[in-house]
Design goal:
- This protein has helices spanning about 10-20, 55-60, 65-75, 85-95, 130-135, 140-155; strands spanning about 25-30, 45-50, 75-80, 100-110, 115-125, 160-165.
- About 25% of the residues are buried.
- It is of the alpha/beta class.
- The protein is built from six helices and six strands; from the N terminus they run αββααβαββααβ.
- The protein has two domains: about 1-85, 2-Layer Sandwich (GMP Synthetase, Chain A, domain 3), CATH 3.30.300; about 85-165, K homology (KH) domain (GMP Synthetase, Chain A, domain 3), CATH 3.30.300.20.
- A hairpin with a 5-residue loop joins strand 4 and strand 5.
Length: about 160
């Protein structure tokens, strides 16, 4: 895992999360999706909470009551995911309850601007049906942008996340 540093706002969010959910929070950060329509709308902001493995369900609460409360208190979308040891598991935790056919990390060769060849890692996700794929790609790609940000935050060697047809 990557070493993380928290600012005072993150520490306050983590404290609020623990008070509301009674679950320990490993990480919290804010992610802002830039839309062309309204740059200041609260709908453009996500607050992500990362919990210990297999505790996200407890943190979400019965019928999502804890998420609803945190969303109203923070005035931002709230996403709670389990911590993971591998990028594949992190992606599966992010897209849950959707069940992709597969999540694979592949090395691809790439050439930089000066013509040097190198190898980059790309996470590929394939869903069984178009509806699940649209869920991840909908809303101006906000969910996909958030997923890419989270994967890069914890696994900096992953250069991109691609959703296959």
């Amino acid at each position: 895992m990557v070493s993380l540093k928290f600012d005072s706002e993150a520490l306050q969010r983590i404290q609020l999360f623990k008070q509301v959910t009674k679950v320990d929070c490993k990480d919290s950060f804010e992610f802002r999706v830039e839309h062309s329509l309204s740059e200041t709308a609260p709908q453009n902001s996500f607050v992500v909470f990362v919990t210990a493995p297999r505790t996200a369900g407890l943190a979400i609460g019965k019928a999502g009551e804890n998420v609803k409360f945190l969303r109203s208190k923070l005035n931002k979308f709230v996403k709670i995911i389990d911590e993971a040891e591998t990028p594949e598991d992190l992606i599966l935790n992010f897209v849950y309850p959707m069940q992709p056919l597969f999540v694979k990390i592949e090395s691809k060769s790439a050439t930089d601007a000066s013509g040097n060849a190198s190898s980059i890692k790309v996470a590929n996700i394939k869903f069984a049906n178009a509806g699940e794929r649209r869920t991840l790609l909908g809303n101006n790609l906000a969910n996909l942008k958030l997923l890419k940000f989270i994967v890069k935050r914890y696994f900096p060697d992953i250069a991109d996340v691609m959703v296959l047809q």
